[in-house]
Amino acid sequence: MTIAKKFVVGMSTTVLLAGLLTGCGGNSATSSSGGNSKQLLRMTLLAEPQAMDTSIANAAVSFDILNQINEGLYRLGKNGEPIPALAAAMPVITNGGRTYTIKLRDNLKWSDGSALTAKDFAYAWKRTLDPKTKADYAFMVAWIEGGDAYMNSKGSADQVQVKAIDDKTLTFTLVNPIPFMTSQLSFPVFFPENQAFVEKYGDKYAADADKTLSDGPFTLSKWDHEQSLTLVKNEKYWDKDNVKLNEVDVQIAADNNTLANLYQSNAIDEAQISRDQVDQWKAKPDYLVEPQLYITYVEMNENVPALKNDKIRQALALAIDRSSLVDIVFHDGSQSPTGFVPSGTKDGNNKEFRADAGDVLPKYDPAQAKTLLAEGLKEAGLTSFPTTLKFTGDDTEDGKKALEFIQGQWKQNLGIDVTVESIPHKLRIEHGQKHEFDLLLFNWGADYNDPMTFLDCHESTSSFNESQFKDPEYDQLIEKAKAEPDGAKRAQYLVDAEKILVKEMPVAPVNFRAYSYLVKPNVKNILFFPYGSEWDLKNASVE
Question: Nearest-CA neighbor of 18 among 530, 521, 533, 532?
Fold first, then answer.
């Protein structure tokens, strides 16, 4: 996911918790009828949201909060399919699948009471494309005709083919038909923005709670950076009558063992758990596993001399026992990867991508890894693997353990030493974006259910191409897939692209991620998603 997928956060992904209103002393806020009179839900994030600006946000912890305080034309429903949100109905699609016309609901309002109109979508999307905004996710909006030229300073905002026909009618035309476009309109980068409010705060827009404006089920009433966030019900929201929660308190924390203990003592009533707690809970009815369209991988910076060589990168990949890593470090329903695109991803042609592509990832093979390393070092003109390289990742519990496991595998199987560096999630993202790393434990969750969300980020021109991988044939295949209207041909282009990625190994997949949750029966109707925003509280309640 992206990282949301999106640009995502695997080892530091959101941990969802919900708080019982029963304190340690036994005081209860539960009404005599069994309902929760305050409708207060307590949650936890494992990292500080990187941004609350829908144009700028690029990480799961940001997308998860944005999905509660804002809304787009569509939301994802129970089955992960798009349903009308600010839109009054599903889009009217014409022009061979390229032109979308969408009617908005009547009397839509921002949380300050100002009118929300189709112009707010056109403004937001063009702001995201504006090169001055430096939006990582601008490439998605650039699917609109004229968007790529504007994003790359070769065209103007006026040439971008998104228009507010009137206050309630939005239309846009894509460069090529996109089979998942309606679902994609539920992603935060396609949310509206209020131009007057954005321009009022300028560079400070969305930097604090009082500088955010909401159109979703909740508003951000407090943001104590690195500590907590408070969401409250948005009384101006078009569907407020179906929002049960009055307040959501979000604490920023990172210790899964502590969270599991709080759950067991009834201090919280929902939690994502990690390896150490799974065996204790997996046979109990509280336990829930949610597979994700999500991959963790080692990024290898190809500007580092030793990592320019294909065989050296392949050696590092083959020296990792991925099955043991998944069981020992994660042990939460995650799977050993069989390629770069996770299991469960649709191929855009009504099939699953992994069924098309098969098992393409080379097996764990320490002997072959040693041979490849020796050959690669010779080709690179090196007598030994550098001892100065750093292996960087998140400073969360799982992040540290995964770094140490892989470090040990390289030492045991290849006889090489790397220095492990655990840093805060936000800083890890910055290091990746600036290519300031040697080896990076990275995570990507799907922004939408299609292999393109995993593959186009490795195009040479992608802002998410952090390994700086460059292959003309790979780029050509991705571009062909983007323009191909035939579903079967498009799927084959993507299969061929993945094979190149796996062969040259700029990134080494180490797991297909799943999340393990504990859920108390009095928490109702939280939706968990395998892609995009990880969860949705719009219809949630505490009984």
Answer: 521
Q: Kindly give the pairing relationship between strand 419-423 and strand 390-394.
A: parallel
Both tokens of 248, joined, read 């959501």
Classified as helix, coil or strand, 341 is coil
Interatomic CA distance for residues 360 and 509, integer angstroms: 11
- CA dist 318 and 30 (Å) reads 55
Q: How far apart are CA 455 and CA 465, in angstroms?
A: 10
Give the separation between CA 383 and CA 404, rounded to whole angstroms: 25
Quote the pTM value. 0.78
Amino acid 536 reads D
What whole-number distance in Å separates Cα of residue 307 and Cα of residue 438? 8
Q: How far apart are CA 75 and CA 47, in angstroms?
A: 24
Question: Which residues are CB-contacts of 106 (< 8 A; sequence separation ≥ 6)?
Answer: 88, 168
Backbone angles phi, psi at 282, to 5 degrees: -65, -20
User: Taking a C-beta distance cutoff of 8 angstroms, is the pair 59, 7 a contact?
Assistant: yes
pLDDT along the chain (543 residues), means of 10: 37 33 28 57 82 92 94 92 96 97 98 98 98 94 97 97 98 93 95 98 96 98 94 98 94 73 78 81 87 94 96 98 94 92 90 94 97 97 95 90 97 97 90 95 89 94 92 97 90 96 96 86 86 88 90
Other CB atoms within a 10 A radius of the CB of residue 200 amount to 12
Residue 100's beta-bridge partner residues?
93, 172
Following DSSP, what letter does each residue of 344-399 receive, concatenated? T-B-SSSSBHHHHH---SPPP-HHHHHHHHHHHHHHTT-SS--S--EEEEE-SHHH
Tell me which amino acid residue 326 is: V
